[in-house]
Amino acid sequence: MYLGEFQHSLDPKGRLILPARFRDPLAEAFVTSQMDGCLALWTPAEFHRRAEEMRDLAKGTPVERNMSRVFFAGAQEANPDRQGRIAIPASLRQFARLESQVVVTGAWDHVEIWDVAAWEQAKGAGESALHGPPVAIAATSDPGGQP
Prior knowledge:
By secondary structure, the chain is α+β, with helices and mostly antiparallel strands. The protein has one domain (5-131): Transcriptional regulator MraZ domain (Chemotaxis protein chec), CATH 3.40.1550. The chain is built from five helices and eight strands; from the N terminus they run E-E-H-E-E-H-H-E-E-H-E-E-H.
């Protein structure tokens, strides 16, 4: 499981030093585009799970097919070097609008890489939602609403 928020920078070659706690689990990894305009790092097992979901989208609406195409076209292996750096291809850096400063976040089953401004906006929206009224969760499993 991946948790935490880390401020990092890209070097001039577009490489990112992974937070130390993520390096061993991501010794073999894939980097992909991700919803909300960030990038995602996946272990091979989680990448294959996500790839199956995206493959299923390829059978859906035109929008879903395009999402699947972009996901697969941009997916790359991203194995860290001895210094813990991963190379992020230019096309993915452009997709996520990554400049020199980035935020690396744990997202349970994967790691996300964000442009700082985009992360601040997503984080603010999430914090506002957490401060808001509690979300009602159905108390029964009966579709008719009977306890």
